[in-house]
Amino acid sequence: MKATAYPSLFNPLYVIVTGSLGVFIALTLFTWNYPAPGDTKGQVFVATNAFAVWVFLLAVLCCLLTVMIIPAWGMLIGLFRNRISAEGADLRRRAIVVLSLESVFLAIVVFSVLQLIDSFRTGFQFEDYVPRGHGERMTFMYAYAFLTTLPALLGMALIHILARHLSEKIESAGRTESQLFPLIAELLPCRTLLQNYLTIVGIILSLIPITTAGLRTILIALDPQNEQSFPITNAILFGLVFTIFLLLVYVPAHLALTETSRKLRDRLCPLDSLATLKEDMEQRKALDDLLQTNIGIAQNLKAGFITLSPLIASLIAGVLGINISLP
């Protein structure tokens, strides 16, 4: 697999510039003409103490989105151009079909989640508390988050396809070491990319329930009755939905990579003789460490924390939504 570098992701200047732009976008959306002159309900909304906390959370979210969106799309394009297309027309056509179907599926999921959010607002007159134009601004934020997570989720699907394709190449190579050993260099970048994608999606989806809890805090400050109409369990449910959604995309790719890595290890170093068992086990252990086929408990917990971060964040959001009390 051809290595593709994205120095902008680690370039401090890039992070500062794009992060500042993201903060500027959020502040512009939720301070400029927000509320509009003459919008008395909006004036009350922004006068609450919790409003500054909510805008801060939105600024953090928009900052991260702006920093990540270019590298996320760059990694996806690089993966498709340098790896999928290089494997031939059949794999390229298969990848295009999968990407198209998954894009439609993701759009449906996002629409369904937004509809779910709207259904939670039917218990009270939501529009009576927020400034005019609030819905359009939040739609922009949701769309921006979707455009940033989309390439990461599609990248996971491509890695799943690549893992299956590499498994087929391992089968056709038999036990020819000269054909098998170069496949290690093709598997390792896929695992690194998968973890990068997981981090991007996990961080973004973690912040959404937190911002929802921040908005809930404002609504309760405006009218304590809204605590019953907009219970904190709603924010926790958002986190649960996002966690399940992330697992459904990530786990198949992770399992496919692990299965392919183990198959490659077994072909490179099979257990054929008791006389060479000790040497074979040492070589297999080295391959396991290299291919990460046997991830330890600590590493599993680390990966699990990132994967479950939307749910964990929703629980933190629940605490914030209940206990935030600004002087």
Describe the structure.
With 327 residues, this protein is mainly α. It has one domain. 79% of the residues lie in helices and 0% in strands. The protein is built from 12 helices and no strands. The chain has helices at 12-31, 40-46, 50-84, 89-120, 134-173, 177-180, 184-222, 226-229, 233-268, 277-291, 297-307, 309-323. The longest helix has 40 residues, at 134-173. The model is unreliable at 1-8 and 321-327 (pLDDT under 50).
Look at the structure and give the mean pLDDT: 80
What structural class should be given to the helix and strand makeup?
A: mainly alpha
Helix content: over 70%
The dominant shape is elongated
Give the tally of β-strands. Answer: 0
Counting DSSP H or I runs of 4 or more residues, the number of helices is 12
Order of helices and strands: HHHHHHHHHHHH
Tell me about the biggest sheet? Answer: none
A few lines on this structure:
This protein is mostly helical. It contains 12 helices and no strands.
Secondary structure layout:
Blueprint: H1 12-31, H2 40-46, H3 50-84, H4 89-120, H5 134-173, H6 177-180, H7 184-222, H8 226-229, H9 233-268, H10 277-291, H11 297-307, H12 309-323
Helix pairs in contact: 1-3, 3-5, 3-7, 4-5, 5-7, 5-9, 7-9, 7-12, 9-10, 9-12
